[in-house]
Amino acid sequence: MSISGGPSPVLVLEGVTVRRSSALLLDGVTCRVPAGACTMLVGPSGAGKSTLLRLLNRFEEPTAGAVSYQGRPLPAWDVLALRREVALVAQRPVVLTDRVLDELRIGRPDLDEDAAAALLGRLGLPSGAVGRATSGLSGGEAQRVCLARALAVEPHVLLVDEPTSALDAHATKAVERVIGELVADGMTVVVVSHDAAQVRRIADQVLVLEDGRLIASGTADRIASLQEGV
Ligand SMILES: Nc1ncnc2c1ncn2[C@@H]1O[C@H](COP(=O)(O)OP(=O)(O)OP(=O)(O)O)[C@@H](O)[C@H]1O
């Protein structure tokens, strides 16, 4: 149970600052990511959203402050073990193998073809996608293959950076539905989004970043009313 009595935080940031060269990417951010909920990171371009997301599985290191997962500071975790539990899907899809099935087996070599096809189908990809060459995937297809690759490992926490930025409305709906199902099944999901309507549809908690600082947090309704000046 958390100190505040709300849902237990699975990830905690305390006074996190990230400085690269002379740039201040994050400036003293303190926040909690509750377990089994969808937390969304919003804010203008360059606000530090991707940087914050990447801190959560040690693709970035803080210059000051600390991040902990399950009550343990991240440096106390074996980094590969951490990344199996806390999976990140980057904004730009990067495929590493020649075939979609091989891609989904990178972190889960025993994944059978039917399970892989079912996972892709949940994300709105057509049957047959599992047998395709990765070289012919569109940006939106590659984005979903990368999401499926992360889900194949069955992480406890899923970090996704603008997962629907290259998708049409139909595919966006499929991805949002899957995120909702994962959260209903107890997964913790953190999503970076620029889509205010999407935030209202799927966020349990919203963290608003601006110029590297956390300027507001709360439910989607609370954040919407703050932004409307109500
Ligand atoms: N290695 C780096 N060195 C210097 N500046 C950097 C570095 N990495 C990122 N930045 C800058 O830090 C700021 C925050 O970047 P970040 O990618 O976290 O923002 P963001 O909120 O995710 O933006 P967007 O919505 O455009 O994806 C940006 O101004 C970016 O140019």
TrEMBL record:
The keyword ATP-binding is annotated on this UniProt entry: yes
Molecular functions (GO terms): ATP binding; ATP hydrolysis activity
Domain of life: Bacteria
Limits of the ABC transporter domain: 11-230
InterPro entries: AAA+_ATPase, ABC_transporter-like_ATP-bd, ABC_transporter-like_CS, P-loop_NTPase
PROSITE patterns: ABC_TRANSPORTER_1, ABC_TRANSPORTER_2
Keyword terms of this UniProt record: ATP-binding, Nucleotide-binding, Translocase, Transport
Presence of keyword Cytoplasm: no
Pfam families linked to this entry: ABC_tran
PANTHER family reported for this sequence: ABC TRANSPORTER I FAMILY MEMBER 17
Designated name of the protein: ATP-binding cassette domain-containing protein
Native source species: Streptomyces cupreus
